[in-house]
Design brief:
Strand content: under 5%
Membrane topology: Multi-pass membrane protein
Pfam family, one: Sugar_tr
Helix content: over 70%
Number of helices: 25
Number of strands: 0
Structural class: mainly alpha
Order of helices and strands: HHHHHHHHHHHHHHHHHHHHHHHHH
Radius of gyration: 29 Å
Distance between the termini: 37 Å
CATH class of one domain: Mainly Alpha
InterPro entries: GLUT, MFS_dom, MFS_sugar_transport-like, MFS_trans_sf, Sugar/inositol_transpt
GO molecular function: hexose transmembrane transporter activity
Oligomer: single chain
Largest sheet: none
Subcellular location: Membrane
Shape: globular
């Protein structure tokens, strides 16, 4: 009995010396991350990838045609194309015969020779066909722009959601903001199903806008929520859970879009809408997640509730180290000249926040224009250009999603070992090389239609996905939190997301047209943007792992601010 009491006393003494900020991933934290990300980030990933699986149905639907008549339409179009080709061939052959006859028999030409009415009619018809085809080529650019509108509307919604996300956090707490996020998903699914059954195209566009808003809002609300409930030791990995769930959503959307599931003319509407089941389940699970301890103290002045939540999240009774850091951060936000959160205009004109802001914005711009969303929005068209058989394209799409998930999991284990800067710079170098190779492969295979070259092109797309998923994929989501002082953090994060979605909007609007016009050369656009970003980040992006705000400001040669120099902004050395 005495030995047991002594052992318990020793354990209590040891617990008093535990630094709660160095606790690992507890069951409570893991459950919180799973619920938060699968009901928000997963939905966003679904919204990014699902339309690509149903393009051939939704394009007809938005034109007011019946998607289930696609086989008939294709057969008719093929027959028309063959007729046009035959007419052109007849006309070309006739021209050659006449030219040859004229060249060899100039002196023997019969001046009374006339083409028969049938031949003249063939010429007129073939000329009309040629003019029609030329007009069609001129309209291709416009048609491709129109096809990009649904994805553009989705990204406009995401842009607005990211821009207004901080507003929700000012009027309600983080958990309530997640409930609001669910409402946008439910409304989007309802609009999609109504559009599908009532054949109303504007409801389709409204659904895409609402789901985009959900994703943009989630990017602001959820990563900051996770950052405030995770310990400093695992904050990088916990923050990457958002990106991981997003990639899983992309993969599951691609699998669901297979023809034997929702990828047919009778089920595509449900394939786009069924994702709301996860937020519905989240309605009953979200109450299990602890509140944000930072918000409990800073906004509601409820330290007791914050301690109770931290005990669950850390798995220990002694959470004083976390409480001290929260109070220190609150003091930094309310002391001195920076008595409140800085607005975006003030951050833009301040020299102190210039380099944290610019590196954040360039990282987000690089993520947007790296080509990753072109792969998930338009991978079917890209693979078709590469020479992949249409029957194999759905499986190639699933391959992109699977590689994305696996590489993201690998990236989670590397972030705290290798560091942020290395995982950004060196994979970007490989991505530049990949785009150069893809340009050559697709253009070289344009007329050959070699399956082998097409498979090699797909392999290089997979290499690109791996490089993206371990660096540019997860790191921009939490980089701003690591390099920014508390008073400017929200504004710098918002600026980063604004740049990201502007880039994605431009990409979604113009990529289909450029892909149609440029073929393999379209990858040179991504190569150009990556090279510029790579040069900037090589010179100005610091390593944030185990660094303080003071360390980073010394790197940028920014005058130090003593009260914040001890603030740890990344995981503490273990």
């Amino acid at each position: 009995m005495i030995s047991n009491d002594a052992e318990m006393k020793r354990m209590r003494q040891m617990e008093q010396t535990i630094d709660s900020t160095q606790r690992g991933c507890t069951s409570s934290l893991l459950m919180s991350c799973i619920i938060l990300t699968l009901t928000t980030a997963f939905v966003f990933g679904w919204g990014l990838a699902a339309p690509n699986m149903y393009n051939h149905y939704t394009e007809l639907f938005l034109k007011g045609e019946n998607p289930c008549s696609i086989e008939y339409d294709v057969a008719i179009q093929s027959k028309q194309n063959l007729t046009v080709i035959s007419s052109i061939n007849v006309h070309s052959k006739l021209d050659v015969m006449i030219d040859e006859d004229y060249a060899g028999n100039e002196k023997n030409i019969n001046p009374n020779f006339q083409l028969s009415p049938d031949t003249l009619r063939v010429n007129r018809d073939s000329n009309n066909n040629i003019e029609t085809n030329m007009k069609k080529e001129r309209l291709d650019f416009v048609n491709e722009l129109i096809k990009g509108i649904p994805q553009t509307i989705f990204l406009v919604g995401a842009f607005i959601g990211a821009l207004t996300g901080p507003f929700w956090l000012k009027v309600i707490d983080r958990k309530q903001a997640v409930y609001v996020n669910y409402i946008f998903t439910f409304t989007s699914s309802l609009c999609m199903l109504l559009s599908y059954y009532l054949n109303v195209s504007w409801l389709f566009y409204l659904s895409r806008f609402l789901l985009g808003y959900q994703g943009g809002m989630a990017c602001v609300v959820v990563p900051s929520y996770i950052g405030e409930i995770a310990s400093q030791r695992v904050r990088g990995r916990a923050g990457s859970a958002f990106r991981l769930s997003l990639t899983i959503g992309i993969l599951i959307a691609q699998v669901t879009g297979m023809p034997f599931m929702a990828g047919n003319c009778y089920s595509w509407g449900w394939g786009l809408a069924i994702v709301s089941l996860l937020p519905f389940i989240g309605l009953f699970l979200l109450f299990l997640i602890p509140n944000s301890p930072t918000q409990m103290i800073a906004v509601y002045n409820n330290e007791e509730q914050a301690r109770e939540d931290l005990r669950k999240l850390r798995g220990t009774e002694n959470v004083q180290a976390d409480i001290d850091i929260i109070h220190r951060q609150i003091q930094q936000r309310t002391s001195g000249s920076q008595s409140k959160v800085l607005s975006i205009p003030k951050v833009l004109i301040s020299a102190r926040y210039r380099w944290p802001m610019l590196t954040t914005m360039i990282l987000q711009w690089s993520q947007a224009l790296s080509g990753i969303n072109a792969v998930f929005f338009y991978s079917s068209k890209m693979f078709l250009k590469a020479g992949i058989s249409p029957t194999m394209i759905p499986y190639a799409n699933i391959g992109t999603g699977l590689i994305n998930v696996i590489a993201t999991l690998i990236g989670l284990s590397l972030i705290e070992r290798i560091g942020r800067r290395a995982l950004i710079i060196y994979p970007m170098v490989v991505m530049v090389v990949v785009f150069g190779v893809l340009t050559f492969l697709i253009e070289y295979n344009e007329d050959r239609n070699s399956t082998r070259l097409g498979v090699i092109a797909v392999i290089f797309v997979f290499i690109f996905l791996v490089c993206f998923s371990i660096g540019l994929g997860p790191i921009p989501f939490f980089y701003a939190n690591e390099v920014s002082r508390p008073e400017a953090r929200d504004s710098i994060q918002a600026l980063g997301f604004v740049v990201n979605y502007v880039g994605n909007i431009i990409l979604s609007l113009f990529f289909p047209a450029f892909n149609s016009m440029l073929g393999g050369y379209v990858f040179l656009i991504f190569l150009f943007f990556l090279l510029i970003s790579l040069g900037f980040l090589w010179l100005k992006m610091p390593e944030t792992r185990n660094s303080t705000i003071g360390d980073l400001e010394n790197f940028w040669k920014i005058p130090s601010n003593p009260p914040s120099d001890s603030l740890i902004v990344s995981s503490v050395k273990t």
